[in-house]
Amino acid sequence: MHQENEVKLTGLISKIYPPMITPAGVKVARIVLEHSSEQMEGGALRYVKCRIYCVYVAAEINQELLDHHVSVTGFLSVNTQKKLVLHITNLKNLD
Amino acid sequence: MHQENEVKLTGLISKIYPPMITPAGVKVARIVLEHSSEQMEGGALRYVKCRIYCVYVAAEINQELLDHHVSVTGFLSVNTQKKLVLHITNLKNLD
């Protein structure tokens, strides 16, 4: 069966952590994304906010992107603490 | 600026909670979705697993869907405990 896991999210980069290096030597960028929008739900418009920790494997996120609006695509996974993490596969600066 | 918040996720319904009724009298279905898939990340295939609490406003989820594979679309938000929640806007039974 084809399994799907696809996220498209816009938001502000509120934090950029120092990049991590995996044991295999791969750079992992890590940020916090703050999202807010209005979404239709059950026939009513709803104000939505979320704050999500994101990793971007084999990529760098320039410190200049702090407080910038970005659009990311990626997939959801959990970290070792079983917390949801957004794995970014594409990031676009909107500012 | 156009804000985006879109999730497409397949998974198994591992729990169906009793529906909640909002103060406005709207039924809210609540489930846990267990997802697993393989995703491309930084040029390598990665095995991905996640377990996410989902709400489906103004909808019902039949108890017969327990342990069934479904495909959902929706958006991410946080609950009052600041935990990420997937708000389902569409659900399709895949079995």
Protein architecture, described:
The structure is a homodimer of 95-residue chains. Chain A is mainly β and 95 residues long. Chain A has one domain (7-93): Nucleic acid-binding proteins (OB fold (Dihydrolipoamide Acetyltransferase, E2P)), CATH 2.40.50.140. The first copy, chain A, is built from no helices and five strands. Chain A has a five-stranded mixed beta barrel. The model of chain A has no long low-confidence stretch (mean pLDDT 96). The interface between A and B is large, with 41 and 41 residues. Strand 1 (5-21) of chain A pairs antiparallel with strand 1 of chain B.
- Low-confidence residue ranges of chain A: none
What do we call the CATH topology of chain A?
OB fold (Dihydrolipoamide Acetyltransferase, E2P)
Order of helices and strands of chain A: EEEEE
Question: CATH superfamily assignment of chain A?
Answer: Nucleic acid-binding proteins
Structural class of chain A: mainly beta
Shape descriptor of chain A reads: globular
Largest protein-protein interface: A-B, 41 and 41 residues
Query: How many domains in all of chain A?
Result: 1
What is the average per-residue confidence, as pLDDT of chain A, rounded to a whole number? Answer: 96
So how many helices of chain A?
0
Strand order of the largest sheet of chain A: 1-2-3-5-4
Oligomer: homodimer
Main sheet overview of chain A = 5 strands, mixed, barrel
Distance between the termini of chain A: 39 Å
Radius of gyration of chain A: 14 Å
Would you count the extended β strands of chain A for me? 5
Q: Proportion of β residues of chain A?
A: over 45%
**CATH architecture grouping of chain A:** Beta Barrel
Q: What is the CATH level 1 assignment of chain A? A: Mainly Beta
How helix-rich are the residues of chain A, as a percent range? under 10%
